[in-house]
Design goal:
This protein has a 5-stranded mixed beta sheet with strand order 8-9-10-12-11, with helices on one face. A 4-stranded antiparallel beta sheet has the order 2-1-7-4, with no helix packed on it. The chain has a 3-stranded antiparallel beta sheet with strand order 3-6-5, with no helix packed on it. By secondary structure, it is an alpha+beta fold. The chain is built from 5 helices and 14 strands. The chain has 2 domains: 211 residues, Zincin-like, CATH 3.30.2010; 38 residues, no CATH class. The longest helix has 19 residues. The chain is 25% helix and 28% strand. A hairpin with a 4-residue loop joins β13 and β14.
């Protein structure tokens, strides 16, 4: 997860539900419309279905695969999404707006079918997004070949643009404020480290973020150059050492209390 302030013209027309670990369901925008299932997520072993009503012109994005899409009269559309994998509650999310959708494909080593990468972007950003999201395809192939295969191969990977700053690694569908190279690498890395394997407590969150940060640099080293990767490492070290308090450890998610655990030397 990366959080940065990011004003966006779609803010008033975009609705999303984001689930941080300290609150099982947080409606960041009210009046999302009728949801035909209680928003409290029920964790199930392999089958999870959610039913949603929305206006005909809107597109709704969430985890898993869409198994039903039906127009009900002139003003409502029924969409049913199903996720077939175990999932932590904070990785469940939905978003709805007038998305523009396109699919790209990531070829995977040893598989006859490529992995679909489904992108939902704000219409005014589609031209740039189609060019930028192509960079995630070799990243998927890289991680898939270095670690275990992509954990949710029976469904998809994808991006949904949203107005919250930075990105969030929702399972099979990362929410993104933009499609910068490092942000895409970071959120993709979480599908392995954070989603497939999830930290046990809030205090262990550094494991999720540590692996994602490391793999962002490793992506640059493998797919660009070692020199550029080393430059990023030097920048990170300079930034960390520039903080007088050194590294910190969260002791409470409620008020973001922290304690100093080491000094940069």
């Amino acid at each position: 997860m990366i959080d940065r302030a990011a004003p966006n013209p779609n803010r008033d027309r975009h609705r999303h539900v984001h689930q941080p670990p300290q609150r099982r369901c947080n409606f960041t925008q009210p009046n999302i419309g009728p949801v035909l299932h209680h928003p409290q997520i029920q964790q199930q072993e392999y089958t999870q279905k959610k039913w949603y009503l929305q206006t005909v012109s809107q597109r709704r994005r969430r985890n898993g695969a869409m198994v039903r899409n039906e127009v009900l009269g002139d003003s409502q559309r029924l969409m049913v999404w199903q996720h077939r994998y175990p999932i932590a509650t904070y990785l469940v999310a939905i978003a709805v707006t007038n998305y523009s959708m396109y699919t790209q494909y990531a070829p995977l080593v040893g598989r006859s079918k490529p992995l679909p990468v489904v992108n939902y972007v704000f219409p005014q950003f589609r031209t740039d997004a189609e060019r930028e999201t192509r960079d995630v395809l070799p990243m998927i192939r890289l991680f898939d070949s270095l670690f275990v295969p992509y954990p949710f191969e029976k469904e998809k990977y994808g991006h949904a643009q949203f107005t919250w700053g930075g990105g969030m690694e929702h399972q099979t569908m990362s929410f993104m404020v933009n499609f910068s190279y490092d942000l895409m690498a970071h959120e993709l890395a979480h599908q392995w480290f954070g989603d497939m394997v999830t930290c046990g407590t809030w205090q262990d969150l550094w494991l999720n973020e540590g692996f994602a940060t490391y793999l962002t640099v490793m992506t640059t080293e493998y797919l660009k150059s070692k020199e550029e990767a080393n430059g990023k490492l030097r920048g990170m070290r300079s930034n960390i050492c520039g903080n007088d308090g050194g590294s910190v450890f969260p002791t409470s998610y409620r008020d973001w209390e922290t304690v100093n655990v080491c000094e940069c030397v």
